[in-house]
Amino acid sequence: MSTSHASKGNQSPTTSKASSACCNFDINIEAQGGVNIYNNCSSTGEPEGKPDSGCCHGGTKTCPPSIGTCLPVVAGAKHKLSRDQKLAIRAANSPIPSAIAASLLHSMRRLSLGKTAANSLEAATFTILRKLPANLINCTVSAFDDVDPALRNKLFAPSLLLDPDQPVVTTLLTAALATEIKQRTGVIAFNDPNAPDQERPGLMRLYTPSGEDFFSQVRICRVNNLRTGSFIPALAPTDYLPSELQQDCAGVLVNGQSQVVCQIRSTNCPGNQVAGACGVVLNIAQGDGVELSGVNYFNVNAKVRLTDAQTQLIVQDVDAFVFGDIDTPVNETVNGVTQLINDCRVHDKITFKVPNSLPPGIYWVQVVVPNTSGIPVFGDSIISNTEFINVLPPPDARYTIVTERIDAREETSPAWWGSDEVGLHTISFGIDLNLQPIMPLQSIEFSSFLGDVEFDSGDHKDITTTVYQNDQPILGLFLSVLGYEIDSQHAYNTMIHDWTQYFVDAVEQQAKTIGSAILAIGVSTVIKLGWWGLLIAAIAALVTIAVDLIVSLWAPADLIIQDAIPLSILDIDALTSAAAPAPPSSTYTTNGNIVVNINQGVPPVKMPFQYRETRAYVSSDQDSIYELTYRYNRLV
Question: Could you tell me if 633 and 574 are in contact, meaning their C-beta atoms sit under 8 angstroms apart?
Fold first, then answer.
């Protein structure tokens, strides 16, 4: 047969089925007038009644996909990036290979070869994978084998690319996930995947003081990336962001609606005075982590001193993790004069965990560095300037996240080729008080909301649905969002929708080892790094990337929406609290080369117990901009 893809409209669809020895396919016609139909069969098919076990489609032989895709391409659809293009983009934007994707690819290979499940992990994974068409499994493995080995090792954890006779066992997967979580944590916190395994001192940038010299040579420039009043070069009042200043917020009625209104505090500061206002005192949960960035953290035995702000009594010197700046030079020459670089261009970092037993309250925070400089005037230790944190018990409220609408600000190019059809999928789960993922995953596929909706620039659609909810105390949560421009909703529903859901189920089997992987990282490392949000962000990234890598192997859908939203319990508590301001706008780029702009151009709406934000997803590869509106709710 042969076909051309007719115009999209409200015609009554006609569906029929056809098959041959090597081909089974659906025909879904939504057109008026003449229609030509092309099948997607291999040209090597045998005549009917003579099935050939070597057929790629329907047979047992594993064959490379002839057109670079494991899914039929809809004639007349918008041009899609090739598999190689998709994978190259992922590799360029993510320096860490995926353990889950590698584990699943190896399981697919063993299943396609008829291997018997060798352990409970593989048995559970095989049960799910058998729900997928055999030719899809074969094609995925072939596509994987066709990837350049150097590129493959950047995307898929090499430690899990085993001999076909060797199954993935839980211990191997746990070790690979532990490595991936540590590396992703290192990138997020220190922009270095190897940082958690190589605590290192910063460079010494000291001078011998004389006379009345009160300059803090060990200096805290930032707390959790927010600039302090000790920032050098000194900032003008207008240079500080609202998030860097203390704000008093309350729920008030505005035009008959309850809204959260905030104003910057300038008197009775709970912390330092900053440029005529009060510097922000961050709320930190017991057991959570804090990152300090500054100058002269030149000894890995440095500690963080916590002092009760009310009694001014030292409570504890806390063990910490030091990752010094070895890139910024020690000296520079200005107007012919050599001088130290000891201002906030330096980015030495130290992270620590707030002790679980620390009573709630406001504390002074200082970095205490053992004096190994040979300059006796400093004494045994050099102590930094003083910053402040407000320690709180972790909230025990319950929360939901709701997607409200999708907007097509700019459809994919070229617009004249036709409207966009969008496939959207979310995955979420919470992390319990023992740093264990709460199963099952919460997975939502939006085909029932999007139906046969086609998007042109300026179109929008209500997609109100709950994509996350918890019914037990949590340390944090993450939400993964993936959206694709697809050839047709019919193709997406019958192929990508069901198949992706089965694959998510298989990911869940692998994800059950995440908790063990966190423990395998080592208690001492977890204590030093501390940061719940950091670990959750790493987990969010590894799940999102694993799912996207497999779909990228399938093709031909193009990624237009990608997001990994990690939230510690204090993060989501602050979003839904009337006592906290809305976070500032921000932006970041995903491994799929999607630029995520949060609340840029669309201000957030903050109400008591509720927060609404807009995230714009910009794809330079597709020349598209899509927006999703999210609502965060505090229930109790």
Answer: no
Tokens coding 476: 């944090």
| C-beta contacts of 228-236 below 8 A and 24+ residues apart | 228/272, 228/274, 228/279, 228/385, 228/387, 229/272, 229/273, 229/274, 229/275, 229/279, 230/272, 230/385, 230/387, 231/344, 232/343, 232/344, 233/343, 233/344, 235/275, 236/275
Q: Are 351 and 529 in contact (CB under 8 A)?
A: yes
Question: Which residues, at least 6 apart from 577, have a Cβ–Cβ distance to it below 8 Å?
Answer: 634
The span from the CA of 344 to the CA of 216, in Å, is: 12
DSSP state letter for 377: G
Q: How many CB atoms lie within 10 A of CB 513?
A: 24
The pair of structure tokens assigned to 429 is: 């789960």
Per-residue pLDDT tens for 49-69?
A: 333 333 333 333 334 444 457
User: Quick one: pLDDT at residue 45?
Assistant: 37
Q: 265, exposed or middle or buried, with CB in 10 Å at 0-12, 13-18, 19+?
A: middle
HSE-up of residue 141 (Cα within 13 Å, Cβ side):
23
Do the beta carbons of residue 387 and residue 365 sit within 8 Å? yes
Beta-bridge mates of residue 77: none
> Do 629 and 594 touch, CB atoms closer than 8 A?
no
- pLDDT-derived band at 71 (thresholds 50, 70, 90) equals low
Burial 218-244 (b: 16+ CB within 10 A, else e): bbbbbbbebbbbbbbeebeeeebebbb
What Cα–Cα distance (Å) separates residue 430 from each residue in 155, 472, 476? 26, 9, 6
Candidates 521, 518, 527, 528; CA nearest to 300 is: 528
pLDDT in tens, 574-609: 999 999 999 999 999 999 999 999 999 889 999 999
> What is the C-alpha separation between 630 and 400, in angstroms, rounded?
10
Whole-prediction pTM value? 0.83
**What residues does 156 pair with on adjacent strands?**
98
Assign 48 a pLDDT band (cuts: 50, 70, 90).
Answer: very low
Using CA atoms, how far apart are residues 536 and 289, in angstroms rounded to an integer?
12
Task: Classify 528 in phi/psi space as left (phi over 0), alpha (psi -120 to 50) or beta.
Answer: alpha
Longest alpha-carbon distance in the chain:
100
Residues 6+ apart with CB under 8 A from 150: none
How many CA atoms, within 13 angstroms, populate the side-chain half-sphere of residue 313? 2
Cβ atoms 628, 617 nearer than 8 A? yes
Q: Which one, of 598, 500, 583, lies nearest residue 546 by Cα?
A: 500
Check residue 114 and give left, alpha or beta (phi > 0: left; psi -120 to 50: alpha): left
Among 602, 498, 473, which Cα is nearest to 131's? 498
pLDDT, one tens digit per residue, over 399-429 is 999 999 999 999 998 776 778 888 899 999 9
Asked whether 71 and 145 are in contact (CB, 8 A), the reply is no
Whether the Cβ atoms of residue 417 and residue 466 lie closer than 8 Å to each other: no
3-state secondary structure 58-100: CCCCCCCCCCCCCCCCCCCCCCCCCHHHHHHHHHHHCCCCEHH
Confidence of residue 337 (pLDDT cuts 50, 70, 90): very high
